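Entry for the shared binder. Reason: the reviewer on the internal report wants the predicted structure included alongside the sequence.
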Amino acid sequence: MEKSKVFLKNRLGLGLVKWIAGNKEQAKKNKEAGIQDLSLVKSLRGLESSSGISYRILQGISKGERSPEYTTLEAIAEAFGTKLSVFLAYCEALPDNDVQQAMEANKKAKSKEANKRAKSKVVKGRKKP
């Protein structure tokens, strides 16, 4: 089955989020074992620092809203301490159902944010200028 670009962007975003979550879990285990590993990227801010890619771009990728360039993907993989092929294989191995659920969650979050912005424009029954 051929997948849409939106689906593929969300698969990559979910892979990014899950890789970071895995690093957080590994860091927790390392800490419990008395091992300090500063090379693990444990957040988008940490990835920004390690990769040189702006937080805004990384956030867009993680939400499935951006299509990263090849050089951006290489920088992400390098910051994770892996090869790009390994990172992409990890993303590709994510179950389609997980990607679909992430897409739905992203859609709900986006809708919620749009509603929040619309409500903030209304003050005491009047629209803000």
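Summary line for the report: Helices lie at 5-32, 44-51, 55-62, 70-80, 84-92, 96-120.
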